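Dear colleague,

Following up on Tuesday's group meeting, I ran the structure prediction for the four-component complex that the binding team flagged. I've pasted the input sequences exactly as they went in, so you can double-check that nothing got truncated or mislabelled along the way. The C-alpha coordinates for the whole assembly follow below. Feel free to forward this to whoever is handling the docking comparison.

Inputs:
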Amino acid sequence: MDMDNIQYTLTFQDRIDKTSIIPAYYQLAKILEYKIRLADFKQGDKLPTEIELAEKYQISRMTVRRAIAELVNKKLVTPQKGRGTFINKPNIDNIVFELEGFLEDLEKRGLQTIFKLIEAKAMRSDGEDRISKKLLLNKGERYLYTRSILYADDEPLMYDVKYLHYYKQKPILEVSSPSLYHFIRDNTDKMPTKSDRVLKVALLTSKEALLLNVPPDTPAFLLEQLFFDENDLPIGLSKSLYRGDRYKLTSTGKLLF
Amino acid sequence: MDMDNIQYTLTFQDRIDKTSIIPAYYQLAKILEYKIRLADFKQGDKLPTEIELAEKYQISRMTVRRAIAELVNKKLVTPQKGRGTFINKPNIDNIVFELEGFLEDLEKRGLQTIFKLIEAKAMRSDGEDRISKKLLLNKGERYLYTRSILYADDEPLMYDVKYLHYYKQKPILEVSSPSLYHFIRDNTDKMPTKSDRVLKVALLTSKEALLLNVPPDTPAFLLEQLFFDENDLPIGLSKSLYRGDRYKLTSTGKLLF
DNA sequence: AAGTGGTCTAGACCACAGT
DNA sequence: CTGTGGTCTAGACCACTTC
Protein backbone atom coordinates (compact mmCIF):
# COMPACT_ATOMS: atom_id res chain seq x y z
CA MET A 1 0.00 0.00 0.00
CA ASP A 2 1.38 3.36 -0.99
CA MET A 3 0.76 5.47 2.05
CA ASP A 4 1.80 8.66 0.26
CA ASN A 5 -0.81 8.76 -2.45
CA ILE A 6 -4.13 9.30 -0.78
CA GLN A 7 -6.54 11.04 -3.10
CA TYR A 8 -9.96 10.67 -1.59
CA THR A 9 -12.33 13.45 -0.67
CA LEU A 10 -11.95 12.94 3.02
CA THR A 11 -8.86 14.80 4.06
CA PHE A 12 -6.78 14.83 7.17
CA GLN A 13 -3.44 16.02 8.39
CA ASP A 14 -0.84 13.44 7.52
CA ARG A 15 1.55 14.54 10.23
CA ILE A 16 1.89 14.62 13.96
CA ASP A 17 1.25 17.94 15.67
CA LYS A 18 3.79 17.85 18.45
CA THR A 19 2.38 20.94 20.11
CA SER A 20 -1.07 19.41 20.37
CA ILE A 21 -2.52 18.25 23.62
CA ILE A 22 -3.52 15.07 21.81
CA PRO A 23 -0.84 12.42 22.32
CA ALA A 24 1.35 11.59 19.37
CA TYR A 25 0.51 7.91 19.54
CA TYR A 26 -3.18 8.72 19.32
CA GLN A 27 -2.67 11.06 16.37
CA LEU A 28 -0.72 8.41 14.54
CA ALA A 29 -3.29 5.74 15.32
CA LYS A 30 -5.99 7.94 13.78
CA ILE A 31 -3.86 8.68 10.74
CA LEU A 32 -3.23 5.00 10.15
CA GLU A 33 -6.87 4.16 10.76
CA TYR A 34 -7.98 6.68 8.15
CA LYS A 35 -5.44 5.41 5.69
CA ILE A 36 -6.64 1.88 6.17
CA ARG A 37 -10.26 2.93 5.69
CA LEU A 38 -9.60 5.13 2.69
CA ALA A 39 -7.60 2.50 0.92
CA ASP A 40 -10.98 0.78 0.80
CA PHE A 41 -10.03 -1.92 3.24
CA LYS A 42 -7.42 -3.71 1.25
CA GLN A 43 -6.80 -6.67 3.38
CA GLY A 44 -3.49 -8.44 3.37
CA ASP A 45 -1.42 -5.34 2.77
CA LYS A 46 1.37 -4.49 5.11
CA LEU A 47 1.70 -1.32 7.10
CA PRO A 48 5.02 0.50 6.71
CA THR A 49 7.56 -0.85 9.15
CA GLU A 50 7.77 0.64 12.60
CA ILE A 51 11.09 2.25 11.81
CA GLU A 52 9.75 3.79 8.62
CA LEU A 53 6.78 5.23 10.48
CA ALA A 54 9.04 6.54 13.21
CA GLU A 55 11.21 8.32 10.66
CA LYS A 56 8.34 9.62 8.57
CA TYR A 57 6.42 11.08 11.49
CA GLN A 58 9.49 12.07 13.47
CA ILE A 59 8.59 10.16 16.59
CA SER A 60 10.29 7.34 18.39
CA ARG A 61 9.71 3.73 17.55
CA MET A 62 8.11 3.09 20.94
CA THR A 63 5.51 5.73 20.21
CA VAL A 64 4.83 4.15 16.85
CA ARG A 65 4.36 0.85 18.61
CA ARG A 66 1.91 2.43 21.00
CA ALA A 67 -0.12 3.69 18.03
CA ILE A 68 -0.07 0.30 16.38
CA ALA A 69 -1.17 -1.26 19.65
CA GLU A 70 -4.34 0.84 19.39
CA LEU A 71 -5.05 -0.61 15.97
CA VAL A 72 -4.34 -4.11 17.23
CA ASN A 73 -6.89 -3.57 19.98
CA LYS A 74 -9.43 -2.59 17.37
CA LYS A 75 -8.47 -5.66 15.41
CA LEU A 76 -7.62 -3.53 12.41
CA VAL A 77 -4.12 -4.95 12.05
CA THR A 78 -2.13 -7.95 13.19
CA PRO A 79 1.63 -7.73 13.65
CA GLN A 80 3.72 -10.74 12.78
CA LYS A 81 7.16 -11.15 14.17
CA GLY A 82 9.81 -10.90 11.52
CA ARG A 83 7.28 -10.30 8.74
CA GLY A 84 5.44 -7.05 9.23
CA THR A 85 2.12 -5.68 10.38
CA PHE A 86 -0.79 -6.83 8.27
CA ILE A 87 -4.15 -5.21 7.70
CA ASN A 88 -7.01 -7.45 8.67
CA LYS A 89 -10.04 -8.22 6.65
CA PRO A 90 -13.08 -6.14 7.45
CA ASN A 91 -15.45 -7.55 10.00
CA ILE A 92 -18.51 -5.37 10.13
CA ASP A 93 -20.79 -8.25 10.82
CA ASN A 94 -18.93 -9.22 13.92
CA ILE A 95 -21.03 -7.82 16.68
CA VAL A 96 -20.09 -8.13 20.30
CA PHE A 97 -22.81 -8.41 22.87
CA GLU A 98 -22.13 -8.12 26.52
CA LEU A 99 -24.44 -10.00 28.79
CA GLU A 100 -23.70 -7.77 31.68
CA GLY A 101 -25.53 -5.77 34.20
CA PHE A 102 -28.50 -8.06 34.18
CA LEU A 103 -28.55 -7.62 37.89
CA GLU A 104 -26.96 -4.21 38.12
CA ASP A 105 -29.54 -2.91 35.76
CA LEU A 106 -32.35 -4.20 37.89
CA GLU A 107 -30.80 -2.94 41.04
CA LYS A 108 -30.25 0.46 39.53
CA ARG A 109 -33.97 0.66 38.95
CA GLY A 110 -34.39 0.14 42.65
CA LEU A 111 -35.61 -3.42 42.40
CA GLN A 112 -34.59 -5.97 44.95
CA THR A 113 -33.19 -9.07 43.36
CA ILE A 114 -33.23 -12.42 45.07
CA PHE A 115 -31.80 -15.64 43.80
CA LYS A 116 -33.90 -18.36 45.35
CA LEU A 117 -32.93 -22.01 45.47
CA ILE A 118 -36.06 -24.04 44.91
CA GLU A 119 -34.47 -27.45 44.80
CA ALA A 120 -31.08 -28.95 45.50
CA LYS A 121 -30.14 -32.56 45.77
CA ALA A 122 -27.14 -34.80 45.42
CA MET A 123 -27.50 -37.36 42.67
CA ARG A 124 -25.56 -40.43 41.67
CA SER A 125 -24.53 -40.86 38.11
CA ASP A 126 -25.53 -43.99 36.28
CA GLY A 127 -22.71 -43.25 33.89
CA GLU A 128 -24.99 -43.33 30.91
CA ASP A 129 -27.04 -40.17 30.86
CA ARG A 130 -26.27 -37.03 28.95
CA ILE A 131 -25.23 -35.09 32.06
CA SER A 132 -22.76 -37.78 33.12
CA LYS A 133 -21.23 -37.77 29.70
CA LYS A 134 -20.88 -34.02 29.55
CA LEU A 135 -19.41 -33.84 33.04
CA LEU A 136 -17.27 -36.98 32.54
CA LEU A 137 -18.88 -38.67 35.55
CA ASN A 138 -18.39 -42.37 36.15
CA LYS A 139 -21.15 -44.60 37.37
CA GLY A 140 -21.82 -44.03 41.05
CA GLU A 141 -20.12 -40.65 41.28
CA ARG A 142 -22.12 -37.93 42.88
CA TYR A 143 -23.20 -34.71 41.38
CA LEU A 144 -25.27 -31.79 42.52
CA TYR A 145 -28.55 -30.85 40.94
CA THR A 146 -30.06 -27.48 41.67
CA ARG A 147 -32.92 -25.41 40.42
CA SER A 148 -33.20 -21.74 41.19
CA ILE A 149 -35.20 -18.72 40.24
CA LEU A 150 -34.08 -15.14 40.09
CA TYR A 151 -36.67 -12.72 41.38
CA ALA A 152 -36.82 -8.95 41.17
CA ASP A 153 -39.35 -7.59 43.61
CA ASP A 154 -41.21 -10.90 43.66
CA GLU A 155 -41.37 -11.08 39.90
CA PRO A 156 -39.59 -14.12 38.49
CA LEU A 157 -37.12 -13.23 35.77
CA MET A 158 -34.90 -16.22 35.22
CA TYR A 159 -35.13 -19.94 35.80
CA ASP A 160 -31.97 -21.88 36.20
CA VAL A 161 -30.92 -25.51 36.38
CA LYS A 162 -27.41 -26.56 37.30
CA TYR A 163 -25.51 -29.83 37.38
CA LEU A 164 -22.21 -29.70 39.25
CA HIS A 165 -19.46 -31.99 40.35
CA TYR A 166 -20.03 -32.45 44.06
CA TYR A 167 -17.41 -33.80 46.42
CA LYS A 168 -17.77 -31.72 49.53
CA GLN A 169 -19.38 -33.43 52.45
CA LYS A 170 -21.17 -30.38 53.63
CA PRO A 171 -24.68 -29.14 53.12
CA ILE A 172 -25.40 -27.13 50.04
CA LEU A 173 -24.90 -23.52 50.77
CA GLU A 174 -27.67 -21.07 50.54
CA VAL A 175 -27.35 -19.11 47.36
CA SER A 176 -27.72 -15.40 47.50
CA SER A 177 -25.92 -14.52 44.35
CA PRO A 178 -26.49 -15.99 40.94
CA SER A 179 -22.78 -15.77 40.33
CA LEU A 180 -21.97 -19.23 39.14
CA TYR A 181 -18.36 -18.64 39.96
CA HIS A 182 -18.98 -18.29 43.66
CA PHE A 183 -21.53 -21.04 43.66
CA ILE A 184 -19.13 -23.49 42.14
CA ARG A 185 -16.25 -22.41 44.33
CA ASP A 186 -18.30 -22.79 47.49
CA ASN A 187 -19.94 -26.09 46.64
CA THR A 188 -17.23 -28.02 44.88
CA ASP A 189 -13.51 -28.39 45.19
CA LYS A 190 -13.01 -26.84 41.84
CA MET A 191 -12.13 -23.39 40.70
CA PRO A 192 -13.85 -22.52 37.46
CA THR A 193 -11.58 -20.74 35.02
CA LYS A 194 -13.20 -21.18 31.65
CA SER A 195 -16.61 -21.67 30.21
CA ASP A 196 -18.29 -22.33 26.92
CA ARG A 197 -21.58 -20.60 26.41
CA VAL A 198 -24.32 -20.90 23.88
CA LEU A 199 -27.22 -18.53 23.65
CA LYS A 200 -30.34 -19.77 21.93
CA VAL A 201 -33.96 -18.85 21.75
CA ALA A 202 -36.51 -21.23 23.18
CA LEU A 203 -40.20 -21.54 23.83
CA LEU A 204 -41.00 -22.03 27.49
CA THR A 205 -42.72 -25.25 28.38
CA SER A 206 -45.90 -24.95 30.38
CA LYS A 207 -44.00 -25.93 33.51
CA GLU A 208 -41.32 -23.33 32.93
CA ALA A 209 -43.88 -20.71 32.05
CA LEU A 210 -45.65 -21.41 35.32
CA LEU A 211 -42.44 -20.91 37.27
CA LEU A 212 -41.72 -17.68 35.45
CA ASN A 213 -45.31 -16.52 35.73
CA VAL A 214 -45.85 -15.95 32.03
CA PRO A 215 -48.18 -17.49 29.45
CA PRO A 216 -47.05 -20.78 27.94
CA ASP A 217 -45.11 -20.56 24.68
CA THR A 218 -43.55 -17.26 25.69
CA PRO A 219 -40.18 -16.95 23.97
CA ALA A 220 -37.07 -16.83 26.13
CA PHE A 221 -33.32 -16.64 25.96
CA LEU A 222 -31.74 -19.98 26.75
CA LEU A 223 -28.20 -19.67 28.00
CA GLU A 224 -26.33 -22.95 28.23
CA GLN A 225 -23.01 -22.86 30.00
CA LEU A 226 -20.38 -25.49 30.50
CA PHE A 227 -17.73 -24.73 33.08
CA PHE A 228 -14.18 -25.99 33.14
CA ASP A 229 -11.42 -25.99 35.72
CA GLU A 230 -7.83 -25.00 35.12
CA ASN A 231 -7.14 -28.36 33.48
CA ASP A 232 -10.01 -27.98 31.05
CA LEU A 233 -11.97 -30.67 32.84
CA PRO A 234 -15.70 -30.06 33.06
CA ILE A 235 -16.97 -28.96 36.45
CA GLY A 236 -20.59 -28.35 35.77
CA LEU A 237 -23.19 -27.06 33.42
CA SER A 238 -26.14 -24.80 33.67
CA LYS A 239 -29.18 -23.92 31.67
CA SER A 240 -30.77 -20.59 32.32
CA LEU A 241 -34.01 -19.36 30.85
CA TYR A 242 -34.35 -15.60 30.75
CA ARG A 243 -37.80 -14.20 30.13
CA GLY A 244 -37.85 -12.79 26.64
CA ASP A 245 -40.22 -10.04 27.63
CA ARG A 246 -37.82 -8.73 30.24
CA TYR A 247 -34.37 -9.32 28.86
CA LYS A 248 -32.43 -8.09 25.90
CA LEU A 249 -28.82 -7.88 24.93
CA THR A 250 -27.53 -4.49 23.98
CA SER A 251 -24.41 -3.49 22.21
CA THR A 252 -23.09 -0.24 20.91
CA GLY A 253 -19.90 0.59 19.23
CA LYS A 254 -17.94 1.81 16.37
CA LEU A 255 -18.14 0.04 13.11
CA LEU A 256 -14.70 -0.88 12.06
CA PHE A 257 -15.66 -1.17 8.46
CA MET B 1 -4.06 -4.35 50.35
CA ASP B 2 -0.89 -5.85 51.72
CA MET B 3 0.71 -7.46 48.74
CA ASP B 4 3.34 -9.17 50.86
CA ASN B 5 1.15 -11.38 52.99
CA ILE B 6 -0.44 -13.92 50.77
CA GLN B 7 -1.39 -17.00 52.70
CA TYR B 8 -3.69 -18.98 50.52
CA THR B 9 -3.21 -22.52 49.39
CA LEU B 10 -2.56 -21.55 45.82
CA THR B 11 1.06 -20.62 45.58
CA PHE B 12 3.14 -18.91 42.97
CA GLN B 13 6.49 -17.28 42.54
CA ASP B 14 6.27 -13.69 43.70
CA ARG B 15 9.20 -12.56 41.63
CA ILE B 16 10.23 -12.07 38.05
CA ASP B 17 12.46 -14.71 36.52
CA LYS B 18 14.67 -12.64 34.29
CA THR B 19 16.20 -15.68 32.65
CA SER B 20 12.83 -17.01 31.59
CA ILE B 21 11.66 -16.93 28.00
CA ILE B 22 8.39 -15.56 29.33
CA PRO B 23 8.46 -11.76 29.14
CA ALA B 24 8.78 -9.88 32.40
CA TYR B 25 5.66 -7.85 31.77
CA TYR B 26 3.67 -11.03 31.33
CA GLN B 27 5.07 -12.58 34.48
CA LEU B 28 4.19 -9.48 36.45
CA ALA B 29 0.72 -9.35 34.95
CA LYS B 30 0.11 -12.92 36.10
CA ILE B 31 1.48 -12.19 39.57
CA LEU B 32 -0.79 -9.20 39.96
CA GLU B 33 -3.73 -11.13 38.56
CA TYR B 34 -3.24 -13.90 41.11
CA LYS B 35 -2.88 -11.41 43.92
CA ILE B 36 -6.09 -9.74 42.91
CA ARG B 37 -7.88 -13.08 42.76
CA LEU B 38 -6.52 -14.39 46.01
CA ALA B 39 -7.32 -11.23 47.89
CA ASP B 40 -10.87 -12.39 47.22
CA PHE B 41 -11.71 -9.66 44.81
CA LYS B 42 -11.51 -6.70 47.08
CA GLN B 43 -12.75 -3.99 44.88
CA GLY B 44 -11.72 -0.42 45.42
CA ASP B 45 -8.25 -1.24 46.66
CA LYS B 46 -5.30 0.32 44.99
CA LEU B 47 -2.44 -1.53 43.37
CA PRO B 48 1.02 -0.50 44.58
CA THR B 49 2.27 2.44 42.57
CA GLU B 50 4.15 1.82 39.37
CA ILE B 51 7.38 2.97 40.93
CA GLU B 52 6.92 0.66 43.92
CA LEU B 53 6.27 -2.28 41.63
CA ALA B 54 9.28 -1.41 39.52
CA GLU B 55 11.52 -1.35 42.58
CA LYS B 56 10.06 -4.45 44.16
CA TYR B 57 10.33 -6.59 41.06
CA GLN B 58 13.53 -4.96 39.80
CA ILE B 59 12.19 -4.00 36.43
CA SER B 60 11.72 -0.66 34.76
CA ARG B 61 8.61 1.40 35.18
CA MET B 62 7.74 1.01 31.50
CA THR B 63 7.68 -2.73 31.91
CA VAL B 64 5.43 -2.38 34.93
CA ARG B 65 3.13 -0.23 32.84
CA ARG B 66 3.04 -2.87 30.14
CA ALA B 67 1.97 -5.42 32.76
CA ILE B 68 -0.72 -3.14 34.10
CA ALA B 69 -1.92 -2.55 30.55
CA GLU B 70 -2.64 -6.28 30.37
CA LEU B 71 -4.83 -6.04 33.45
CA VAL B 72 -6.56 -2.99 32.07
CA ASN B 73 -7.35 -4.93 28.92
CA LYS B 74 -8.90 -7.63 31.04
CA LYS B 75 -10.82 -4.95 32.91
CA LEU B 76 -9.32 -6.10 36.18
CA VAL B 77 -7.99 -2.66 37.10
CA THR B 78 -8.53 0.95 36.12
CA PRO B 79 -5.71 3.48 36.44
CA GLN B 80 -6.59 7.02 37.44
CA LYS B 81 -4.25 9.86 36.72
CA GLY B 82 -2.78 11.32 39.86
CA ARG B 83 -4.61 8.88 42.12
CA GLY B 84 -3.51 5.34 41.57
CA THR B 85 -4.58 2.12 39.88
CA PHE B 86 -7.79 0.70 41.29
CA ILE B 87 -9.03 -2.85 41.33
CA ASN B 88 -12.37 -3.25 39.64
CA LYS B 89 -15.30 -5.10 40.97
CA PRO B 90 -15.62 -8.65 39.74
CA ASN B 91 -17.70 -9.20 36.68
CA ILE B 92 -18.14 -12.89 36.18
CA ASP B 93 -21.58 -12.47 34.78
CA ASN B 94 -20.32 -10.23 32.05
CA ILE B 95 -20.37 -12.51 29.10
CA VAL B 96 -19.30 -11.40 25.68
CA PHE B 97 -21.06 -12.88 22.72
CA GLU B 98 -19.79 -12.44 19.26
CA LEU B 99 -22.38 -12.47 16.55
CA GLU B 100 -19.87 -13.35 13.96
CA GLY B 101 -19.40 -15.74 11.22
CA PHE B 102 -23.06 -16.09 10.51
CA LEU B 103 -22.15 -16.18 6.89
CA GLU B 104 -18.65 -17.53 7.13
CA ASP B 105 -19.96 -20.39 9.16
CA LEU B 106 -22.51 -21.29 6.58
CA GLU B 107 -20.07 -20.95 3.76
CA LYS B 108 -17.60 -23.15 5.55
CA ARG B 109 -20.21 -25.85 5.60
CA GLY B 110 -20.30 -25.58 1.87
CA LEU B 111 -23.65 -23.85 1.69
CA GLN B 112 -24.24 -21.14 -0.84
CA THR B 113 -25.62 -18.02 0.74
CA ILE B 114 -27.65 -15.50 -1.18
CA PHE B 115 -29.01 -12.25 0.14
CA LYS B 116 -32.11 -11.59 -1.91
CA LEU B 117 -33.88 -8.25 -2.08
CA ILE B 118 -37.59 -8.92 -2.16
CA GLU B 119 -38.79 -5.36 -2.01
CA ALA B 120 -37.25 -1.91 -2.24
CA LYS B 121 -38.99 1.39 -2.58
CA ALA B 122 -38.41 5.03 -1.87
CA MET B 123 -40.86 6.47 0.62
CA ARG B 124 -41.70 9.96 1.76
CA SER B 125 -41.84 10.72 5.39
CA ASP B 126 -44.97 12.22 6.85
CA GLY B 127 -42.80 13.45 9.71
CA GLU B 128 -44.96 11.75 12.27
CA ASP B 129 -44.31 8.06 12.16
CA ARG B 130 -41.91 6.16 14.36
CA ILE B 131 -39.37 5.63 11.59
CA SER B 132 -39.25 9.34 10.78
CA LYS B 133 -38.68 10.17 14.39
CA LYS B 134 -35.92 7.64 14.83
CA LEU B 135 -34.20 8.75 11.64
CA LEU B 136 -34.87 12.45 12.28
CA LEU B 137 -36.68 12.79 8.96
CA ASN B 138 -38.74 15.88 8.23
CA LYS B 139 -42.06 15.72 6.45
CA GLY B 140 -41.55 15.10 2.75
CA GLU B 141 -38.02 13.78 3.02
CA ARG B 142 -37.35 10.55 1.27
CA TYR B 143 -36.16 7.35 2.76
CA LEU B 144 -35.49 3.90 1.47
CA TYR B 145 -37.45 0.88 2.54
CA THR B 146 -36.14 -2.56 1.78
CA ARG B 147 -36.99 -6.11 2.67
CA SER B 148 -34.57 -8.93 2.11
CA ILE B 149 -34.11 -12.55 2.90
CA LEU B 150 -30.90 -14.42 3.44
CA TYR B 151 -30.90 -17.87 1.91
CA ALA B 152 -28.49 -20.73 2.33
CA ASP B 153 -28.97 -23.28 -0.42
CA ASP B 154 -32.55 -22.13 -0.97
CA GLU B 155 -33.39 -22.36 2.70
CA PRO B 156 -34.41 -19.01 4.20
CA LEU B 157 -32.47 -18.16 7.34
CA MET B 158 -33.01 -14.50 8.05
CA TYR B 159 -35.59 -11.91 7.20
CA ASP B 160 -34.57 -8.33 7.20
CA VAL B 161 -36.27 -4.93 6.96
CA LYS B 162 -34.29 -1.73 6.56
CA TYR B 163 -35.14 1.95 6.60
CA LEU B 164 -32.39 4.21 5.30
CA HIS B 165 -31.81 7.85 4.53
CA TYR B 166 -31.95 8.06 0.76
CA TYR B 167 -30.64 10.96 -1.20
CA LYS B 168 -29.01 9.42 -4.20
CA GLN B 169 -30.88 9.77 -7.44
CA LYS B 170 -29.88 6.43 -8.72
CA PRO B 171 -31.60 3.09 -8.72
CA ILE B 172 -31.23 0.93 -5.70
CA LEU B 173 -28.29 -1.32 -6.12
CA GLU B 174 -28.62 -5.00 -6.20
CA VAL B 175 -27.57 -6.45 -2.92
CA SER B 176 -25.26 -9.36 -2.91
CA SER B 177 -23.90 -8.97 0.57
CA PRO B 178 -25.87 -8.51 3.73
CA SER B 179 -23.15 -6.18 4.96
CA LEU B 180 -25.13 -3.21 6.07
CA TYR B 181 -22.01 -1.15 5.88
CA HIS B 182 -21.61 -1.56 2.16
CA PHE B 183 -25.32 -1.29 1.56
CA ILE B 184 -25.51 2.03 3.32
CA ARG B 185 -22.38 3.35 1.71
CA ASP B 186 -23.60 2.45 -1.77
CA ASN B 187 -27.15 3.68 -1.38
CA THR B 188 -26.82 6.82 0.69
CA ASP B 189 -24.37 9.65 0.96
CA LYS B 190 -23.47 8.60 4.44
CA MET B 191 -20.66 6.59 5.91
CA PRO B 192 -21.81 4.55 8.86
CA THR B 193 -19.37 4.62 11.74
CA LYS B 194 -21.38 3.60 14.77
CA SER B 195 -24.40 1.54 15.62
CA ASP B 196 -26.58 0.68 18.53
CA ARG B 197 -27.82 -2.86 18.61
CA VAL B 198 -30.42 -4.66 20.63
CA LEU B 199 -30.91 -8.39 20.53
CA LYS B 200 -34.29 -9.69 21.64
CA VAL B 201 -36.29 -12.82 21.28
CA ALA B 202 -39.50 -12.72 19.32
CA LEU B 203 -42.22 -14.94 18.04
CA LEU B 204 -42.54 -14.90 14.28
CA THR B 205 -45.82 -13.65 12.94
CA SER B 206 -47.58 -15.89 10.47
CA LYS B 207 -46.37 -13.68 7.64
CA GLU B 208 -42.78 -13.80 8.81
CA ALA B 209 -43.01 -17.52 9.43
CA LEU B 210 -44.21 -17.99 5.88
CA LEU B 211 -41.26 -16.04 4.50
CA LEU B 212 -38.85 -18.06 6.60
CA ASN B 213 -40.59 -21.31 5.81
CA VAL B 214 -41.19 -22.35 9.42
CA PRO B 215 -44.32 -22.97 11.49
CA PRO B 216 -45.98 -19.88 12.93
CA ASP B 217 -44.97 -18.92 16.48
CA THR B 218 -41.46 -20.22 15.95
CA PRO B 219 -39.11 -18.28 18.20
CA ALA B 220 -36.44 -16.13 16.61
CA PHE B 221 -33.65 -13.73 17.40
CA LEU B 222 -34.65 -10.17 16.66
CA LEU B 223 -31.67 -7.92 16.03
CA GLU B 224 -32.52 -4.24 15.91
CA GLN B 225 -29.81 -1.96 14.69
CA LEU B 226 -29.64 1.81 14.48
CA PHE B 227 -26.79 3.21 12.40
CA PHE B 228 -25.11 6.56 12.85
CA ASP B 229 -22.71 8.60 10.78
CA GLU B 230 -19.56 10.26 12.01
CA ASN B 231 -21.60 13.09 13.53
CA ASP B 232 -23.80 10.69 15.48
CA LEU B 233 -26.74 11.46 13.25
CA PRO B 234 -28.97 8.49 12.44
CA ILE B 235 -28.58 7.05 8.96
CA GLY B 236 -30.87 4.10 9.07
CA LEU B 237 -32.25 1.25 11.05
CA SER B 238 -32.77 -2.40 10.45
CA LYS B 239 -34.68 -5.23 11.98
CA SER B 240 -33.46 -8.70 11.30
CA LEU B 241 -35.19 -11.89 12.29
CA TYR B 242 -32.91 -14.89 12.57
CA ARG B 243 -34.54 -18.30 12.71
CA GLY B 244 -34.18 -19.59 16.24
CA ASP B 245 -33.86 -23.14 15.06
CA ARG B 246 -30.84 -22.31 12.93
CA TYR B 247 -28.98 -19.64 14.83
CA LYS B 248 -27.25 -19.43 18.14
CA LEU B 249 -24.66 -17.20 19.72
CA THR B 250 -21.58 -18.83 21.09
CA SER B 251 -18.94 -17.59 23.40
CA THR B 252 -16.02 -19.13 25.12
CA GLY B 253 -13.40 -17.70 27.31
CA LYS B 254 -11.65 -17.37 30.54
CA LEU B 255 -13.55 -16.39 33.60
CA LEU B 256 -12.00 -13.39 35.17
CA PHE B 257 -13.46 -14.15 38.55
C1' DA C 1 4.73 20.59 47.35
C1' DA C 2 4.67 15.75 46.76
C1' DG C 3 2.93 11.79 44.60
C1' DT C 4 0.56 9.58 40.91
C1' DG C 5 -0.25 7.87 36.28
C1' DG C 6 0.48 9.46 31.03
C1' DT C 7 3.62 10.28 27.46
C1' DC C 8 7.92 10.12 25.03
C1' DT C 9 12.71 9.18 23.87
C1' DA C 10 17.10 6.93 22.12
C1' DG C 11 19.07 3.19 22.33
C1' DA C 12 19.76 -1.81 23.20
C1' DC C 13 19.23 -6.80 22.53
C1' DC C 14 16.33 -10.60 21.13
C1' DA C 15 13.62 -14.07 18.16
C1' DC C 16 11.79 -14.95 14.00
C1' DA C 17 11.16 -14.72 8.71
C1' DG C 18 12.94 -14.40 4.32
C1' DT C 19 16.92 -14.23 1.53
C1' DC D 1 22.66 -12.04 6.66
C1' DT D 2 19.18 -8.54 6.82
C1' DG D 3 14.87 -6.86 8.19
C1' DT D 4 11.04 -7.32 10.99
C1' DG D 5 8.40 -7.00 15.25
C1' DG D 6 8.96 -8.01 20.66
C1' DT D 7 10.98 -6.66 24.83
C1' DC D 8 13.34 -3.74 28.04
C1' DT D 9 15.75 0.19 30.07
C1' DA D 10 16.79 4.73 32.46
C1' DG D 11 15.52 8.79 32.39
C1' DA D 12 12.70 12.85 31.25
C1' DC D 13 8.71 15.95 31.36
C1' DC D 14 3.81 16.52 31.87
C1' DA D 15 -1.06 16.77 33.99
C1' DC D 16 -3.70 15.67 37.52
C1' DT D 17 -4.85 14.67 42.55
C1' DT D 18 -4.11 15.22 47.19
C1' DC D 19 -2.28 17.37 51.07
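Chain B touches chain A through 47 residues (CB under 8 Å).

Cheers,
M.
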